[in-house]
Structures are given as structure tokens and as C-alpha cells.
Amino acid sequence: MTIGFYENFPSQIHWVESFTSSLPTRQLQQRLIQLLCEINQKEFCFEEITNPTIPEGKIVFEFGLADAQGFCFIDSEETKTATDFIAKTRLENLDVFCAIRYYKGDTKKTPLKFDYYLLRTVFSRNAFEIRVHHERGPRYISPEDLTLIIFNKINEVSEKKILKKSRF
Known about the structure:
Strands 1, 2, 3, 4, 5, 6, 7 and 8 form an 8-stranded antiparallel β-sheet that branches. The chain is globular, with a radius of gyration of 15 Å. The model has no long low-confidence stretch (mean pLDDT 89). Helix 1 (25-39) runs antiparallel to helix 3 (76-88). The protein has a single domain (15-165), classed as Alpha-D-Glucose-1,6-Bisphosphate, Chain A, domain 4, CATH 3.30.530. The relative contact order is 0.25. It starts with 14 loop residues before the first strand and ends with a strand. By secondary structure, the chain is α+β, with helices and mostly antiparallel strands. The protein has helices at 25-39, 46-49, 76-88, 143-156; strands at 15-21, 43-45, 57-67, 70-73, 93-104, 113-124, 127-136, 163-165.
């Protein structure tokens, strides 16, 4: 079983952000997967996420967790499988696919555009790094914004702030 590692992760990285964490690595990894499950396919107003490039636009995220050659959509079943696996196995990184769909106005018929990202989170003691590769799309949400969304959402759902940006 190779949960969390994508063998064909690109060598070209478009953004890197480092964080320190007050949680042990396993708990942070489990929290990250649970968060991605919670925001998977949830609709957000563009203004909630970043400066809007589409007036009255909506955004929908779709996340998949790496499994060697591909990615599995992060739903409740995949979340349970992954968090149980992490409880028993030490992982150095988690690779995630992220598709971002953009809609105009209140209609959720056909997305205007898509952004496709690959994220590699690399963990070390009390710290982790997010490496972002932009596969294709208009970059309405930048690689930097994507890392900040994850950072902010993890801290929002926690009782106390568990992540801080590193200053390297």
C-alpha cells in the first residue's frame, strides 16, 4: 500500500511554503486529510478565498490523495482508510491532486475554467513544507493562495492556532 505518494510527481515546483506545527506529524497528517475531505466539493464565494478575478464567481475544490500511480478522491471512506493507515505507518510526505473549478454567478452548470495543481507536503519534526506544481489552467487562484487556504483552514477548524509560517 502506497497511500500518500505519487511516483510521477513533477520536479518543477512553482511555490514552496514552510510551516511549523504544534501537533505531532501523524496528527497533522490526519487533520490535513480530514480538512481536505470537509472542503471537497464545497462551494465558496471567490471573495472568501482570494481577490476575485471573476465577478460574483464561485469556486469548488476537488482533492485526491495519491496512491502510487494515481489519485483517489478524498471522501469519507478514503479519509478513514488514510487516517487509519497513518496511525500505523510513518509517512514522510503526502501528495495531493487539486482541481479547482470556477463558476460565474449563482449558476453551477458548467465551469468556466479549471486549475489543476499537484501538492507535495513534506513532513519533519514539528514542521512541514508544501510544494506546489501548477499543472495547467488560468491560475485564478495562485499557488501561494492555495497554500494559504490550506494553512488558514487548518487553523480555523482547530481549537487553537496549530500552524505558523516558518521564516527560513
